[in-house]
Amino acid sequence: MATELKKAMEGTLRHEFETGLPAAEVWEVYGGLLVADLIPQLLPEVFSKAELVEGDGGVGTVLLVTFPPGTPGSETFKEEFIKVDNENYIKEALVTEGGFLDHGFQKYLVRIEIIGKEEKTSIIRSTIEYEVHHEHANNPPVVSTSGLATIAGSITKYIKEQKGLE
Asked: Is 157 among the catalytic positions?
């Protein structure tokens, strides 16, 4: 009896946000753990808490992220930094437990790239790469970059305020 292999549904979503700031200044926030500290302060409606489980902000760092009370589904998820490229300003975080994985995803990866344009401006490119279990293919979970877009806008505003530009 032959077994049919069912392929997972895969996809990629991308959002770009022009900052009006040099790439190095944006990376100062996104490149380490500061972004995880700032999101619950600036956007408690996105994440209410981000706790360091292990690591120093480099590859192998694990965060436990808590959704705000009342968010449907899982209360928390763990993500691990699997790439932190301080030369090219790229960070990748893979959800390893809870959250999206409890809702039909078998892979949920977020890549943040800070792309310098001219001397004074850059783009925050947020990409979500995902795979959905084949049993959810007819009713796939919702994937959206809206949270990442909101974060990009708030972090940019925060940096500008800190620099006295807003």
From this structure: no
